[in-house]
Specification:
alpha+beta; Chloramphenicol Acetyltransferase; seven-stranded mixed β-sheet; three-stranded antiparallel β-sheet; 10 strands
């Protein structure tokens, strides 16, 4: 992991960053439906799972764009070179969940195998953070697979200084012959505008539509 400090004197986003972090602290959420028809078909044919595929797609897109990897560390503004997914795993017996993490790698097969192994090893410990180490360079993913929602928002204090993205997925539903997965994206306006979130959603859709190219 490396964290590259941003030179605020030359950073094009400095004015927007300062406004939305200090003057008007502001985070926001956007909820959309991903068409996962092709993705689910490829996963079924090749023995893949939707949750690891979602985590991998998010890791792929998040790591393409610096705005999703920009945050503060000990008061220093900078960008991580890579973010890994931390995700929730539900424990049906306890009706609770654990927060796990798996290192991101572009190789989906390797990532999925590692994530499923982590889930089997750590998912039913009864602890919120069962793994021994949690790196700082992570984005958050949680799933609410029981509900097909049209809107979702976390009440995160925008003045807390937490700037990394948070994603929440819901229950797939079928509409007009398509399988639709609701996904909510929460970001801090200091580092991300609506354009950036819209581009992320578009690129997620492109990955879902071309699953046969990367689901191996």
């Amino acid at each position: 992991m490396s964290f590259q400090q941003i030179d605020l004197d030359t950073w094009p986003r400095r004015e927007w960053f300062g406004h939305y972090l200090y003057s008007v602290p502001c985070s926001y959420s956007m909820t959309a439906n991903l068409d996962v028809t092709q993705l689910r078909a490829v996963l079924r044919a090749r023995g893949g799972k939707l949750y690891p595929a979602t985590a991998h797609m998010l890791g792929t897109v998040v790591n393409r764009h610096a705005e999703f990897r920009t945050t503060t560390q000990n008061g220093i503004v900078g960008t991580y070179d890579v973010l890994h997914p931390t995700y929730t795993v539900f424990d049906t017996e306890r009706e609770s969940f654990s927060c796990l993490w798996t290192p991101y790698t572009p190789d989906f097969a390797a990532f999925q195998a590692h994530m499923l192994d982590d889930c089997a090893k750590w998912g039913k410990t009864g602890r919120m953070f069962p793994q021994e180490e949690q790196p700082e360079n992570m984005f958050n993913l949680s799933s609410i697979p029981w509900t097909n929602f049209t809107g979702f928002q976390l009440n995160l204090d925008p003045g807390s200084g937490y700037l990394l993205p948070i994603f929440t997925t819901g229950k797939c539903c079928e509409a007009q012959g398509k399988q639709l997965l609701p996904i909510a994206v929460q970001v801090h306006h200091a580092v991300c505008d609506g354009y950036h979130v819209s581009r992320l959603l578009e690129e997620l859709q492109q990955l879902a539509d071309t699953a046969e190219e990367w689901v191996k």
